[in-house]
Design brief:
alpha/beta, eight-stranded parallel β-sheet, TIM Barrel, 44% helix
Length: 262
């Protein structure tokens, strides 16, 4: 079985002391490919440098909404430069976050829209963060015609109606640790009904650790638990789900597919 963790923050300080062991455990669990998203210019640079060192790793570059207030022209220029790197497969993690509201919402909107425009220019998909901001996220995605490049709604926990609208815009839906939580009935229901060709798995390491390891650091090896829960919810074998989601990830991250062929 081979798995693709489409979202893991491996440059987070939580992995400073044992990253090589984390990667070894991931490979042992069948995780053959991983995407490391940036959250600002500095972490995007680190993600690219880490991806350069490991064939199984790929980077996404972008400015997270929690970093939007400090996103000046230099930061945008760095993200644009990094997006040309052969191991950069997406623009992300970008979007809106109304839970923390660390930047005024108009600033978040501008930073989000500007990075979708960059993705379009660079022919890269987007990795979208949405926290308590669904209506505005969807409005901006529609306005910027995200379907020209596609992307993924990272750690999807929305409604079935939202899921259907995202798919109509060419966006994959990625499920992480919350799909394993026993009380996440809405997430379970949506995950069971998403068309298989639009489904992805992730960990969001070191965050959102799946059951039964909640309260500990998450890491890419645990994406197997996500896959197992999704397979159970959908009534399929986990091997089949792993194969489908791996193929979906390669379809989304086309530069990763080119790398796997070459």
């Amino acid at each position: 079985m081979k798995l693709f963790d489409t979202h893991c923050h491996l440059v987070d300080e939580a992995f400073q002391s044992d990253l090589e062991e984390v990667l070894a455990r991931a490979m042992a669990a069948g995780v053959q490919s991983m995407v490391i998203p940036g959250v600002d210019a500095a972490s995007s640079e680190l993600a690219v440098r880490l991806a350069e060192r490991h064939p199984s790793l790929f980077a996404a570059v972008g400015i997270h909404p929690e970093s939007a207030l400090s996103a000046g022209e230099q930061e945008f220029a760095t993200v644009a430069r990094l997006s040309l790197h052969p191991k950069v497969v997406a623009i992300g993690e970008i979007g809106l976050d109304y839970h923390w509201d660390t930047a005024p919402r108009p600033v978040q909107h501008d930073v989000f829209a500007r990075q979708i425009q960059l993705a379009t220019e660079m022919h890269l998909p987007v990795i979208v963060h949405n926290r308590e901001s669904t209506a505005d996220v969807l409005n901006i995605l529609r306005r910027e015609n995200v379907g020209r490049v596609g992307g993924v709604m990272h750690c999807f926990t929305g409604s079935l109606e939202t899921a259907e609208e995202c798919i109509q815009m060419g966006l994959f839906l990625s499920f992480g640790g919350p799909v394993t939580f026993k009380n996440a009935r809405n997430v379970h229901a949506v995950a069971a009904h998403v068309p298989s060709e639009w489904l992805l798995v992730e960990t969001d390491s070191p965050y959102l650790t799946p059951h039964p390891h909640r309260g500990t650091r998450n890491e890419p090896a645990m994406v197997r638990l996500v896959a197992e829960q999704l397979a159970q919810l959908r009534g399929v074998e986990v091997e089949a789900l792993a194969e489908q989601t791996y193929a979906n990830a390669l379809r989304l991250f086309q530069k990763a597919e080119e790398s796997s062929r070459g």
